[in-house]
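Hypothesis: this fold can be encoded by more than one sequence.
Test: take the structure tokens below, design a sequence, compare later.
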């Protein structure tokens, strides 16, 4: 009986550790947010709902994000197409700095938030960083113009490799 219990326990540990991305909240048929490390399901759902409302998540493109918390700071990871990032790095980073600001203000009530661009295995590719003084000046000058909407197309192929979750 003890052997059976140990085998069952070992099997459960293996099953739960297979998904290194964390727990998953399905936002719609094509969009999901993984969460772990001090983040609640409610926070992950709130992030996913916001990304859907702002049309980063949609019903046609498969997209994944991951939410963690490190040293009291929210970390939002967006899966990015590295080719597109390398083709237009400055604009892609600027777009995701805007997302970082929006998420910090609208999802986490101003709590410190960092955005990291990752590959389809959730491995870090590029940290977005903060706005530079020059970028802040440019944004403040454009406040009366239509708001900048970072294009989700900047991130083609923005879901994780499904077969890597097994």
């Amino acid at each position: 009986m003890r052997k059976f219990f140990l085998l069952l326990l070992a099997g459960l540990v293996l099953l739960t550790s297979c998904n290194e991305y964390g727990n998953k909240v399905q936002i719609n048929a094509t969009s999901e947010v993984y969460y772990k490390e001090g983040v609640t399901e409610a926070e992950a759902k709130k992030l996913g709902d916001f990304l859907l409302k702002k049309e980063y998540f949609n019903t046609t493109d498969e997209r994944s994000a991951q939410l963690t918390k490190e040293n009291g700071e929210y970390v939002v990871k967006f899966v990015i197409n590295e080719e597109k990032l390398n083709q237009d790095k400055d604009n892609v980073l600027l777009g995701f700095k805007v997302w970082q600001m929006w998420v910090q203000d609208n999802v986490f009530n101003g709590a410190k938030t960092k955005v990291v661009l990752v590959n389809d295995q959730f491995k870090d590719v590029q940290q977005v960083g903060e706005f530079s003084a020059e970028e802040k000046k440019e944004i403040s000058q454009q406040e009366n113009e239509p708001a900048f909407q970072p294009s989700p197309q900047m991130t083609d192929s923005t879901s994780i490799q499904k077969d890597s979750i097994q």
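Residues 4-18, 162-166 have pLDDT under 50 and may be disordered. Helices lie at 2-17, 41-53, 82-87, 89-106, 133-141.
Hypothesis status: open.
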